[in-house]
Amino acid sequence: MSLQSTDAFVCQSLNTVTTSHYIMDQHTPMHPLPEEIQKMARDETVCKYCGVSYLILHEYKLMEEKVKAMEKEMQFYRGSVEREKALQAELRSLNLQFEQSKTDNAFQGERIQNLTIQLEKQQNDLQSVFDAQRCLEEQLKEAHSQSQLFRERITCQSVALNKTVPLLHFAKTELISVRKEVLCIFETWAEMKRKLLVEVEEAAKAALTELRILRGSLAGSQNENVCLRDKVKELQLVSDSFVSKTQELQKSLKNENELQNLCQNLDNKTLDLQNQLKTAELNLQKVTSEMQHYRDMLLMKSKDTDECQAKLKLLEQDAENVKSRFNADLLEKENILMDYQQKCKHLLEELTEKKRNEENMIRRASHSDNELAVLKTIAKQAEEEVAKLKQERESMMMSHQNRIEQLQEGFRQKMLKGDGWRAKMESELNKERANHSSELDELAFRLKEEAKIELDIEKQKHQELIRMYQKDQEEMQKKIPVLISSARHDQQMEITLLAGKLQEAQSKLMQKEEAREKEMQSLKNIISDLELRLKHEQNNGYLFSEENKKELDQKSDELKRLTQEHNKLLHNLSLVQEENTFLQETVRRECEERFELTEALTLAREQILEFKKIGEKFPSQHTSTSQSLPSGLLKSNRQKIFTRPTPDKETKLTGRYGDLGPVSASAPTQHRRIDKMGFSALPSPHPPRERASSVGEARKRITAILRQSSQR
């Protein structure tokens, strides 16, 4: 559809071009426009009113050239559809041919691979044949070497037999004598061993009993040490409580010192209390110093106990070391005896082995003769097998050649059915086949020649081996008496050496027994010294434990006494604190009463001043009344200011200026003094300011001291 649409469009464009061409044929320009005009812009060459360009003829000519180029292209594209169809058909046919060629190539490649695999198999078979031949050659070489070794062994064994025959009788007699001596040595050694074991067991039992006793004493001393440590801990707790109480006492002393500044009347009592406290502090210091001394003593004693324990451990270690030494010596002696027994056994075994070797040598000589016959038979069998292998190889070669020819014929028939390019493949295959056949022929010829050469070599080798075996047998028969004589001489030398070694071993055993006896005596002396030391240390430990018990009893008595004194001091302190609290309350009440009295006096002075001012204003009027007024006013003021006390023993001073604070009932004497004094007791109308300021300062001091005491 796309091709048809393009053809229609091309036809229409050609028709339009032809019509326009016929029209423009009438006005063909004779001369081309100059380049300057051609390069002018479009706006300059176009009319501004109608829009037609002034160079329209030049443009028509350009359009004609373009149309001609388009016509040429259309002529080229007119037969493109048919060409494309033909090309597509050719492509399809080529694709089919290509696929067929691919399948043919794959089939031929498979055939070639099969042929190559068959060739490789044939080559592997040939290599296996060659390997088998090599193995046979190696086996023949090994058999030859073994035969030589057997010959050498036969010669050596024959010489050794000749030497050992006369020596065996002499060795038997000497071995009998050696056995008797060894049995005597074993009997003596068994008796010595029993004695040593009995002595060692007795010493070990004594040491174990002593160790048990020492362990019991150690356990008792450890329990006592634990008790002492518990008591020391209790003493430390008591001392800590004393320290805390001393701190509390110091705090109370500070409070008392502060109260002494306020309570001047109680100086004597506080001085007595301070003296008592100083004595208590001295006693406490003495107690602390004694406690430190006791602690030091306990540390020293604990160190002594640790040293005693270390000494006991060292003694135990020494005893264990002695035991280990005894055991090691016994084991060494037993090992030495076992070594000598084993050596004797080895000598007997060597003699028996030599006898067996002689018998084996005789047997091997007979076996070697039999083996020579067997080797001859094996060589014959090998020759027969080689001939069979050659026949099989020839038959395999013939079968492979026939198979290759059949495959070639089938391949030719199939290749003739193909096209001309298949003929080329056949020619190449024929060349390869010719090459393969030539190579196979060469290989077959080479194999045949090599097989013939190898057979000739093997025949020569077998003949040479037979000759060598015969010569070796003759030489072995000549060397047998020489070997026997040399073996006898060697055995005599060995027997003499063994006798010398036995004498040396006996001398060493005697020396070692003497050294053991000396060591046993020295060990007995060491054990006796250790027993004496243990007894002495046990006595010292008992004395030390008794002294510790006495010291602990003394310390416990002193602690009881100190606790009693401490309780007394605490009781005294509680009494002193109660007295101090009572005195503080009394001082506080007196201070409050003084403060209230001073306030009442100031109010009375102010009222009197007011009355005086009123009297000065009216001096002449009502003189009689002025005399009677002061007494009435004073009485009324007194009644207002000083009321009766309440049942709670506290009153309030009331007047014109409100409440004046509580007043205790413990100041009736002061009220009476004021009542008696009247106006005569009052000072001048203008009191000094210094007294008022001193009263305020005293008030502030008293309040601050009371706050501090309440906080504490």
From TrEMBL:
<feature type="compositionally biased region" description="Polar residues">
    <location>
        <begin position="620"/>
        <end position="640"/>
    </location>
</feature>
<keyword id="KW-0175">Coiled coil</keyword>
<feature type="compositionally biased region" description="Basic and acidic residues">
    <location>
        <begin position="687"/>
        <end position="699"/>
    </location>
</feature>
<feature type="coiled-coil region">
    <location>
        <begin position="60"/>
        <end position="139"/>
    </location>
</feature>
<feature type="coiled-coil region">
    <location>
        <begin position="249"/>
        <end position="399"/>
    </location>
</feature>
<feature type="region of interest" description="Disordered">
    <location>
        <begin position="619"/>
        <end position="699"/>
    </location>
</feature>
<protein>
    <recommendedName>
        <fullName>Leucine-, glutamate- and lysine-rich protein 1</fullName>
    </recommendedName>
</protein>
<feature type="coiled-coil region">
    <location>
        <begin position="448"/>
        <end position="579"/>
    </location>
</feature>
<dbReference type="InterPro" id="IPR038799">
    <property type="entry name" value="LEKR1"/>
</dbReference>
